[in-house]
Amino acid sequence: MKLASFIYQGQRSYGIVKADGVVNLGRRLGDRYRDLKALLQGNGMVEAARFLNDAVDVPMEAITFLPVIEQPEKILCVGMNYAAKRQEFDQHNPAPTLFVRFPDSQTGHNEPVLKPRHSSEFDYEGELAVIIGKAGENISRDDALRHVAGYSCYMDGSARDWQHTWFTAGKNWRQTGAFGPWMATADEIPDPHQLAIRTWLNGRMVQEDNTSSMIHKVAELIEYISTFTRLSPGDVIITGSPGGVGKKRNPPLFMHAGDRIEVEIEHIGHLSNVIMDAPVTGLAAAH
Question: What's the pTM?
Answer without folding.
Answer: 0.94
